[in-house]
Design a protein that fits this description.
Radius of gyration: 22 Å
Shape: globular
CATH architecture of the domain at 249-264 and 318-453: Alpha-Beta Complex
Number of helices: 9
Largest sheet: 7 strands, mixed
Strand content: 25-35%
CATH class of the domain at 249-264 and 318-453: Alpha Beta
Structural class: alpha+beta
Length: 460
């Protein structure tokens, strides 16, 4: 028999969870001590090492690509990107080379949900990632590559994976393929899932049940909620009581299609050896001008992981980043300014990113007229104009000390006009929420800011 197309109660249930700032299992004020206790219960250590100390990893003789002897996990290769703007590829021209991570397998990022005392709670994990600046952060219930959950590493099984694969799963709240960092991954996607359990769920060590209200408070703390949690949480629906926007949905989709059509982007994988502009020495692969990022190697000890010790490459940016939405209200309706970003690893030319998404150090040498649009507006914003601000690290399993300051910043008409420059558009959070139900519309930084909107009670 036909069934309802949606759950009419879901929005109200999520709103109740968001309004509940104390859970039934762990008080918000006790979270820091719980996280510290989980850190004390396990041994964690990360050490930078030269490439010749990598175990199981080597540079291929023919290509110079950095690969694992199993043929699994990922490879570090070269990428050559050329881009032309304009309807016929006849506009401004860009050309660059860079290292890139090639990891074709699709992982699972999943959060399990269960009601306690009538309030939805989310099962979160204290997980160590070698690239996190503080190592231990709050991750989804399941955060696993296919190599992990199929035991390619010969390690222990992934806890709670049965709720996200195979028969007998609970009720699906969200399930969508989303991109990883297009600047550092080549066409990498993960399956973002939220599943509501229908029966009893055992609570294992390193896991805790939290309400959305509790998670929202933790999102306001630096380097606490990891990237994988943020991207999954962004898939929760955002209520839209007004149903109004500067760009109606059809016009917004047409604008996105137009942006994808006007960029002619060619991204070709090339050998890592001899990559123009990049040099390799014992400890790193880095850009000749010291900008952008470098490839390094680490040795890891982690007592609570499926494998307790290993070595691996990581990408490490040269400095902290900034990711920000400029925000305005039009007719009383909140809007954020999105940017149609080209990144070499994207599957479909562009995805919508924040207004500003840059590492400022990479542009400090440029004259003002050549600096990225809106960057100086964000960097110069006073505290009275910042509605939200926190430091968040990126994916700690592949990136080391990759930390950005995420911001929501009030803007004026003079700074960010209602009719924005080409490549930018004003959209509502509800419109972003509608787009994120489908894959490859919002990049991972925009999804983080969408999740953070829920942690910003003064503006949403």
């Amino acid at each position: 028999m036909p069934r309802p197309r949606g759950d009419e109660r879901l929005a109200d249930r999520l709103a109740l969870s968001a309004a509940t700032t104390e859970g039934v299992h762990l008080a918000t004020g006790d979270f820091r001590e719980w996280l510290a206790e989980r850190g004390r219960a396990n041994e964690f250590q990360v050490e930078g090492i030269p490439f010749d100390r990598l175990d199981g990893w080597s540079f291929e003789e023919a290509t110079g690509n950095l690969t694992h002897r199993s043929g699994r996990f990922f490879t570090v290769e070269g990428l050559h990107v050329t881009e032309r703007d304009g309807p016929y590829g006849d506009g401004p021209y860009a050309d660059w080379y860079q290292p890139i991570i090639k990891q074709p397998e699709i992982g699972i990022l999943g959060i399990l949900v269960k009601e306690f005392d009538g309030v939805p709670h989310f099962l979160m994990q204290a997980k160590m990632e070698p690239g996190n600046p503080n190592l231990l952060q709050l991750s989804p219930t399941v955060q696993a590559t296919r190599s992990n959950y199929t035991k390619a590493h010969q390690g222990a099984g992934v806890k709670y994976i049965e709720y996200f694969v195979g028969p007998g799963r609970g009720r699906i709240i969200a399930d969508v393929l989303q991109s990883e960092h297009g600047s550092w991954f080549f066409r990498k996607s993960n399956r973002n899932m939220i599943v509501e359990a229908t029966g009893d769920v055992p609570l294992l060590d390193d896991f805790c049940w939290l309400t959305l209200g509790q998670i929202g408070e933790l999102l306001r703390q630096d380097n606490t909620v990891n990237m994988d949690s943020r991207t999954v949480l962004s898939c929760l629906p955002v209520p839209d009581s007004a149903g109004l926007a500067l760009l109606p949905d059809t016009e917004l989709l047409s604008w996105i299609t137009g942006e994808r059509s006007r960029h002619d982007v060619q991204a070709e994988r090339v050998p890592l050896a001899g990559l123009p502009g990049w040099r390799r020495h014992d400890m790193a692969i880095e850009h000749e001008h010291g900008r952008y990022f470098k490839v390094v190697a680490v040795a890891v000890l982690a007592g609570n992981r499926e494998v307790t010790s290993w070595t691996q490459p990581l990408f490490e940016p040269v400095g902290p980043g900034v990711a920000a939405f400029l925000i305005r209200e039009f007719g009383g309706i909140p809007h954020v300014l999105v940017h149609a970003r080209v990144e070499g690893g994207f599957l479909d030319t562009i995805e919508l990113g924040p207004t500003v998404q840059y590492t400022p150090e990479n542009y400090a040498h440029l004259p003002e007229k050549e600096r990225p649009l809106f960057l100086d507006t964000v960097l110069g914003a006073g505290a009275d104009r910042i509605r939200y601000g926190a430091l968040h690290s990126e994916e700690g399993g592949r990136f080391r000390n990759a930390v950005s300051r995420y911001l929501l910043v009030d803007a004026t008409e003079a700074e960010a006009p209602q009719d924005p420059p080409p490549g930018y558009a004003w959209v509502t959070p509800a419109q972003l929420s509608g787009l994120v139900r489908h894959g490859h519309y919002l990049n991972v930084q925009a999804r983080t800011l969408l999740a953070c909107l829920g942690a910003c009670p003064t503006w949403s």
